[in-house]
């Protein structure tokens, strides 16, 4: 069983609670005080230990707030709270970097990557290609680093053979997410690239900003296009409108637990197999589009 460390947290991000609980199970009384009510809500709908990941256990935690670290540890049954995040090196088999403020990722990940510790970096890996390339260059072996939006593993977003036949060639995707570009655009960009099957930079992009809302449109040479809309504080869902040559369909993201669990399992599989579990071309393209959305809008 893998011993995992976890680093958190960042504003608006409850992953230290949820990711740890997916491995360890949780204490219902302590978890009830989680500042993200949706987490105890969806955990209560699951069966533990039957639905927990058996490949590992989160054994160590660090956050910038010792009181928060202690509460996450109590809620998600983590046995060790460390004073410095570097103290986990030599104590854990892998690290979950569960912060989504991408500007901190390089500083937190670098000591672990240099020590040969596998690291799962929460989405997005970076906000610009230069930083992403620096982080990726620190890999000591293929598969040491893993990063993605878990939504690429969400079953409710998947297209099955019958769906693809009904759609025909997908020519346009209109994707929408609430919250903010830097933290949530990855959730609509990466699945959209998966739907479209594109692996190269777009021919043209254009962006616009209205308050805390941001839109990026992109087009490719073979008449494929996409629009990525982040709605800021407006209420809404993460959803995708797919337009094909034969028909149109909608997909809506609803099951956080299953998506997180699937992505964490892929990371653990990569550690065991020493195999790269992400597509480096798509990861690069995701970062490029995030950067374009920040610069052009």
Describe the structure.
The protein has 297 residues and is of the alpha/beta class. The chain starts with a strand and ends with a helix. It has two domains: 170 residues, NAD(P)-binding Rossmann-like Domain (Rossmann fold, 3-Layer(aba) Sandwich), CATH 3.40.50; 111 residues, Dihydrodipicolinate Reductase, domain 2. The mean pLDDT is 96. It is globular. A six-stranded parallel sheet has the order 3-2-1-4-5-6, with helices on both faces. Strands 8-9-10-7-11-12 form a six-stranded mixed sheet. Helix 1 packs parallel to helix 4 and helix 5 runs parallel beside helix 6. A hairpin with a 3-residue loop joins strand 9 and strand 10. It has ten helices and twelve strands.
Query: What's the main sheet like?
Result: 6 strands, parallel
Strand order in the largest sheet? 3-2-1-4-5-6
Shape: globular
SS class? alpha/beta
Strand content: 15-25%
CATH homologous superfamily grouping of the largest domain? NAD(P)-binding Rossmann-like Domain
- Assign the CATH class of the largest domain: Alpha Beta
Number of spatially distinct domains: 2
| Radius of gyration, CA atoms, in whole angstroms | 19 Å
């Amino acid at each position: 069983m893998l011993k995992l460390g976890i680093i958190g947290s960042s504003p608006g991000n409850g992953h230290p609670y949820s990711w740890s609980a997916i491995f360890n199970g949780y204490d219902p009384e302590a978890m009830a005080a989680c500042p993200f009510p949706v987490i105890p809500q969806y955990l209560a709908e699951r069966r533990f230990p039957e639905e927990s990941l058996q490949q590992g256990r989160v054994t160590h935690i660090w956050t910038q707030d010792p009181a928060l670290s202690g509460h996450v540890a109590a809620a998600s049954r983590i046995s060790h709270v460390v004073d410095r995040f570097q103290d986990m090196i030599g104590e854990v088999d892998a690290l979950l970097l569960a912060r989504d403020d991408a500007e901190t990722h390089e500083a937190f990940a670098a000591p672990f990557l240099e020590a040969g510790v596998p690291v799962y970096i929460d989405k997005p890996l970076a906000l610009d290609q230069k930083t992403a390339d620096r982080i990726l260059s620190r890999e000591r072996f293929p598969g040491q680093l893993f990063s993605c939006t878990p939504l690429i593993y969400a079953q409710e977003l998947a297209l099955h053979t019958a769906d693809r036949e009904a759609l025909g060639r997908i020519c346009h995707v209109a994707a929408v997410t609430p919250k903010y570009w830097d933290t949530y655009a990855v959730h609509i960009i990466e699945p959209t690239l998966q739907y479209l099957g594109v692996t190269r930079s777009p021919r043209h992009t254009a962006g616009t900003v209205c308050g805390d809302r941001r839109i990026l449109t992109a087009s490719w040479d073979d008449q494929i296009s996409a629009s990525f809309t982040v709605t800021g504080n407006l209420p809404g869902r993460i959803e995708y409108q797919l337009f094909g040559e034969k028909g149109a369909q909608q997909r809506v993201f609803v099951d956080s637990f299953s998506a997180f669990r699937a992505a964490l399992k892929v990371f653990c599989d990569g550690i065991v197999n020493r195999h790269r579990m992400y597509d480096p071309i798509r990861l690069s393209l995701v970062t490029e589009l995030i950067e374009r959305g920040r610069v052009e809008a």
